[in-house]
């Protein structure tokens, strides 16, 4: 699992910048300044030594993409038009560079969402890789009583640090935070809903054979880790529901399949 260091100290906090001004990562994952520094110095320099001119990056186990859903302007808005791909990253340094320069969750407009998903997966029920899956979710109803920015950061770090599941589970697809008038909601999307899968991976198991009971156990373990990452009380309950159940009910609040 990738071990993430604390956020580097980069001086005085910068003001959030508009999402559409964030540069897209180069195709090869290396910026021009990195190449210049590598050419001018043979000594390894990390972001913790020099936050502006470093030539070493610590790769993550997976490449991730940050998405943003802007608030609808009217009832006729199309979801695909509201969902925007922001940036793709694959290293610890890129993650902190993005996190330190985008608008904090607490400052987003109502009905906004951040989605952080593995590269190649759209944060939509209709994506073929999500079709047979579901999500763990928890609503924070007292918005003033929590630090949503810290909670969302903890959730992102748990996701990219690969601490939400065991190696080979191949379940975690991405994490989401929703900003609503009376609550914040954080969710964790999974590849399956815990059903039996075959070695061929027809249900998106990634080729790992599981019985229904084993699939359920994997999801319950992920749910407990999700709950821990949010620092919830034992009495708090996080619920798991399937995407198809939500689609059929016409709501993101379908009846829970699992609870921890």
UniProtKB/TrEMBL annotation:
InterPro entries, sorted: TIF_eIF4e-like, TIF_eIF_4E, TIF_eIF_4E_CS
Stretch list, region Disordered: 1-41
Top-level lineage group: Eukaryota
Keyword RNA-binding: yes
GO function term, MF aspect, one: RNA 7-methylguanosine cap binding
Cellular component, GO annotation: eukaryotic translation initiation factor 4F complex
Keywords, sorted A to Z: Initiation factor, Protein biosynthesis, RNA-binding, Translation regulation
Family membership: Belongs to the eukaryotic initiation factor 4E family.
Function, as annotated: Recognizes and binds the 7-methylguanosine-containing mRNA cap during an early step in the initiation of protein synthesis and facilitates ribosome binding by inducing the unwinding of the mRNAs secondary structures.
Organism, as annotated: Eremomyces bilateralis CBS 781.70
Listed name of the protein: Eukaryotic translation initiation factor 4E
Subunit structure: eIF4F is a multi-subunit complex, the composition of which varies with external and internal environmental conditions. It is composed of at least eIF4A, eIF4E and eIF4G. eIF4E is also known to interact with other partners.
Pfam families in the cross-refs: IF4E
PROSITE patterns, A to Z: IF4E (PS00813)
GO BP terms: regulation of translation
């Amino acid at each position: 699992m990738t071990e993430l260091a604390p956020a580097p100290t980069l001086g005085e906090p910068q003001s959030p910048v508009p999402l559409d001004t964030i540069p897209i990562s180069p195709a090869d994952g290396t910026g021009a300044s990195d190449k210049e520094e590598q050419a001018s110095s043979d000594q390894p320099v990390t972001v913790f030594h020099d936050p502006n001119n470093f030539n070493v990056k610590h790769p993550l186990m997976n490449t991730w993409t940050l998405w943003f859903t802007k608030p609808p302007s009217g009832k006729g808005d199309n979801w695909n038009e509201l969902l925007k791909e922001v940036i793709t990253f694959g290293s610890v340094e890129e993650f902190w560079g993005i996190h330190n320069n985008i608008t904090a969750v607490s400052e987003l407009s109502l009905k906004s969402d951040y989605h952080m998903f593995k590269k190649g997966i759209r944060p939509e029920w209709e994506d073929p890789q999500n079709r047979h899956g579901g999500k763990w979710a928890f609503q924070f109803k007292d918005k003033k009583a929590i630090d949503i920015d810290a909670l969302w950061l903890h959730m992102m770090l748990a996701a990219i640090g690969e601490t939400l599941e065991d190696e080979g589970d191949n379940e975690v697809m991405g994490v989401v935070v929703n900003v609503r008038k009376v609550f914040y909601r954080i969710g964790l999307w999974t590849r399956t809903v815990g059903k039996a899968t075959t070695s061929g991976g027809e249900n998106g198991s990634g080729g790992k054979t599981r019985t229904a009971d084993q699939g359920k156990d994997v999801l319950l373990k992920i749910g407990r880790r999700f709950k821990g990452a949010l620092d919830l009380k034992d009495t708090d309950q996080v619920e798991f529901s399937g995407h198809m159940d939500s689609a059929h009910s016409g709501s993101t609040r379908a009846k829970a399949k699992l609870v921890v």
